[in-house]
Write a structure and sequence with these properties.
By secondary structure, this protein is an alpha+beta fold.
Length: 193
């Protein structure tokens, strides 16, 4: 049965769909003196297998595997898609020798899971922020050009005069850098790209 399970995952491996198979829910972000904290539940193929807790106060985050079977499947998946090599290459390109000096084989599952969780949490936050305003910058550092008392840009579509306001704000945002909002969202807002 286990070998059949690995065979089923091979179709996903070729697509490298970490964000599809590994998901996070119940995300709570906070602040500590050592940057942002993050707490969430981690799922593999919609089955909860771990909890992740980074209090933002220094030290390593705590990952607790609560379902060993699903946790093993996630480990096999990471190994099959060579995620450790991807992680190693990214850290090496950034000059993080404290990670690269131990080599690919020295990278733990907890480190890989932390990398995925942080990426997924960043994507969730960016998606949420893109609903509130035009996000300008990079995926890791961006400013929100939004509107006071507006939780969703779609709220502004109810008043005809606001279409020009949206377009003008988008144009001004675009002058300051790369707008990260999706093309689909921008078109739905009637923005001329």
């Amino acid at each position: 049965m286990y070998l059949r399970r690995v065979e089923q995952l091979k179709t996903h491996i070729m697509k490298r769909c970490i964000g599809t198979l590994i998901t996070i829910k119940n995300v709570v972000q906070g602040r500590g003196h050592d940057c942002g904290g993050l707490i969430c539940d981690v799922y593999f193929e919609n089955k909860k297998f771990a909890t992740y807790h980074d209090d933002g106060w220094g030290g390593e985050p705590e990952t607790r595997i609560i379902n060993d079977t699903i946790g093993l499947e996630a480990k096999v998946y990471f190994k099959a898609i060579k995620y450790a090599q991807d992680y190693f290459d990214r850290m090496d390109a950034r000059g993080f020798t404290f990670i690269t000096k131990k080599g690919v084989d020295g990278i733990t599952f907890d480190e890989l899971l932390e990398d995925v969780v942080v990426q997924l949490a960043s994507e969730k936050l960016l998606d949420k922020d893109c609903k509130k305003g035009f996000c300008v910058g990079t995926r890791n550092r961006y400013a929100i050009h939004g509107f006071t008392n507006t939780k969703n840009l779609n709220e502004l579509l109810t008043t005809p005069n606001n279409r020009k306001l949206l377009q003008d704000t988008y144009d001004a945002s675009k002058q300051k850098g790369v707008v990260l909002n999706s093309v689909e969202q921008l078109k739905a807002l009637g923005i001329k790209l």
